[in-house]
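User: structure tokens for this one?
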Amino acid sequence: MKIARTDRIVITGGAGFLGGFVVEILRARGYQNIFIPRRKDFDLTSEADVRRLYHEQRPDIVMHLAAEVGGIGANRDNPGRFFFANLAMGLHLIEHARINKIKKFLQVGTICAYPKFTPVPFREAELWNGYPEETNAPYGVAKKSLLVMCQSYRQQYGLNAIYLLPVNLYGPRDNFHPHSSHVIPALVRKCVEARLAGAKQITAWGTGAVSREFLYVEDCAEGLVLALENYDSPEPMNLGSGREITIKNLTELVARLSRFEGQIIWDPTKPDGQPRRCLDVSRARDTIGFSARTSLEDGLLKTITWFESHLHELTERDYSHAAG
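Assistant:
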């Protein structure tokens, strides 16, 4: 069943980092019948609230982008919460998608679901060939369980549920909080603040030897909309740039683009995380015509520019949260 521009679309996480760009792209493509549930109104870990969401909004399509997530530090501090919250949200949303016989359910997974020592580039077929990297395994396993749920509900109930695996995202409007941010916003903040303070050095986590792949957030949003319109397979699909960079080289690049000229000190007592992370993106290219358009350097420049223009309000917000 093809989706229509008039379909009612519920987007969980639609006010978040990725979700905001997805909403903008959908509206630009003529989808206007969109509802974004807010946490204060709907606790998606509660089945009663999810039941009420479906009852009140009567969606034709659900895009489940909401997640409780953070960097290595946040994952180490909240393994139980991250497992419960991410599993519970998906569990209730998929079950009530079945009950309400909706047209399509789009589930966003996580690259953290891949085994720790997945051969590079990561192929979707490798998802079950090992256990995820320990620091984010609870989050990764919870999200991977939702792939099984999507596939089994398709098989038994005919639910058109698709599952996308975006690689590490970055860009404007990201989470730049010092404790919970991912690697790129954390590095951007460190480098910009160090430059403004006249600091002579910054400290970076780990050894810098591990590698990562990054996808600019607007590119990912475009990929999700393409999948919503054109992908109906039970098989999971990677969304990425297909380009890998070591954390050392990334840190030096962020420092240069941020105009920080001091020294970078590595703290090997901090965890590196997964040794390598780079995706095989051929399925998305061949099935929905998706290819990342934004180079890492261009995306980083846009991210740094946005952060610098919002630095004061972000710092004020962090201070007020800490005080509260």
